[in-house]
# Entry
Amino acid sequence: MRTTQIRLAARPEGEPEDGCFETVQVELPDLRDGEVLLRVVYLSLDPYVRGRMSSARSYAAPMELGDVVVGGTVCQVVASRAPEVPEGAFVLSYSGWQTHAVAPARAVRRLDPAAAPVSTALGVLGMPGFTAYAGLLEIGRPQPGETVVVAAATGPVGSAVGQIARLKGARAVGIAGGPVKCRALLDEFGFDAALDHRSPRFVADLKAAVPNGIDVYFENVGGPVLSAVVPRLNTYARVPVCGLIAQYNGTAPVPTSDRLAWFLSQVLTRSLTVRGFIQDEFTRSHGRDFVRDMTGWVRDGSVRYREDVVQGLERAPEAFRGLLRGANFGKLLVQVGEDPTR
Amino acid sequence: MRTTQIRLAARPEGEPEDGCFETVQVELPDLRDGEVLLRVVYLSLDPYVRGRMSSARSYAAPMELGDVVVGGTVCQVVASRAPEVPEGAFVLSYSGWQTHAVAPARAVRRLDPAAAPVSTALGVLGMPGFTAYAGLLEIGRPQPGETVVVAAATGPVGSAVGQIARLKGARAVGIAGGPVKCRALLDEFGFDAALDHRSPRFVADLKAAVPNGIDVYFENVGGPVLSAVVPRLNTYARVPVCGLIAQYNGTAPVPTSDRLAWFLSQVLTRSLTVRGFIQDEFTRSHGRDFVRDMTGWVRDGSVRYREDVVQGLERAPEAFRGLLRGANFGKLLVQVGEDPTR
# Structure
């Protein structure tokens, strides 16, 4: 069996250009006992992958040049030498940017297509959903009546943050790019207010949208949105930091005034809690509750989700660049192969 | 009875010059029922007072022009119309920069001169000691074998932080200005390592002093020390922020590279917790334990303290400027009147 792979050919400076990727076809090894042959159906594109393309220290080891670009996948088993994962089964895997893969059966997780669309294992019921759930409930700890603000709010993390905040009795204010996304925040995801960060009136709009200040700012963007949010944070506000997408393509420090001194003075004078986190930290403590709660919420319609599906592995680099610019609308997936469950 | 007061005459730009202060003498009103007449023995000089001299929002309301400069005091009662606080008693009060004051008896706290020198109510057994205790134990949560770093380490907060860290089984690394203070960190306060932030080798010395990285950085300084510390923070490090003295005299943002973006990327990739706090927040939860623990530790010599006593209210402005430059060595007090307990 041959697989088509997209590999890291060069480390990007700024936006990952086409030259950073190379497409190759290789023969997969024969299956050994305990292994499964996988056909990739959906590939997840996520901002953290940009960090792993660089050589700088981050929360995961960088990719090496020549590695298949990393990414979570939903796959169908096309051959199996592991009885617990039979041919035809759907699994969550970490195959990366390729069409087929061989994996140990113990490294994949079986999915039940009857419980939810299998693609949701990469979004609302997967890592992005868990990031929202654990970060908001464990670090943000929104109380009834409090105000929760999240940016990239139509994305898979942000849309879940806002909806969970409302389920816990808090007020949810979403920030997104452009009027179409802002409209979806109100109509589709039930946010209490929606703000367009591209508007020249954004800073004033934000102030007006949070008359009682901000109690939780779920940080997944960084950059200018953070600067507008910080002056509105209340005493004892919590700032879970799960991503800084606006900064990921940055190459050199931008000369500007010393915003760190300013930021720390806000941390001090308002007794702010700023907390970076990667969702793995909470798997043991919150993983079971997440599956129970989020599956229930998705089933009963309390939590909605949106997917932005691009067709064909060859479009992954272009879609990934768009992700880093905020061009996607909802959880960005690449459909690599046919999904027989739809 | 007349009192000599030092009042805020002008808001400082940068360092508080003499012109920011004016000395006046005023007649105190007659005592009413429930009030006491106080003779100030010790006046505490603390960095937070610089913030209250400015009009900018901080964690306490700014002083108004013409107000007596604020500050905690240890006083002796010279006349009383409150039976629970008799003439001759020593009390903790908040009289500010003056020689005498009238206060409601319910606004002062009686001190027992037999339990500890009365001046310690402004230092190791008072607000600075409690800041160290609550911030370190509640936010920093040092575990046995972990590394705790604190700057301004010979000051009343820093010296307590290091000693409590060691009592909890952690390794204590102190940062101070100059070899004399560094020597005291090792010989007098029992730190495991001492670093001079004025040394040209400071960044390399810090790296060498924390071979296992930093688990808790107790932030009371800000500025360049923070920049040297952040790259050494371990994953899940905690950064209680109780002060930023290096920034208090700042007037305009200093043009530099965007250290905030850099800082947040560290918060994210190492799952850091950064938490501003003012000690009041923990009075209810930790106040009783503090009095019990710290009184015991001071009595049995587990925690030592140092006081830097300046003679005469008229020297308060000069001493306060020195405090903001780090010229003091230990808890800075102004002796305003005679201390008959010494």
